[in-house]
Amino acid sequence: MTFFCIADKESGLGFRLAGVETREVASRSNALEALKVALATEEAGVILVTEKAALFLRQELDNLMYKNQMPLILELPSRGGSAKRRSVGDYLKDIIGVSV
User: Distances from the Cα of 52 to the Cαs of 8, 43, 55, 73, in angstroms?
Assistant: First the structure.
């Protein structure tokens, strides 16, 4: 099982440096294509979506999160968000019990 990330441009670099397959998106059509690729990637057990990228995919993500058990879809804060946020590692630890 691997991670797949759909991210805005500002956030994507960090995930790629961590070795996570990442698709950067800047529009709804880019985001839909990235989601299609992520769902077609059989070994992708966790799809990470940054909050800025999730804005393009809100309806699709909500449907997937409530209807499917796999893959697990996690929405994470985008880099440079306006509010003080918890780290990605803290989110992962709370949600799936993995300390990064």
Answer: 6, 25, 5, 15
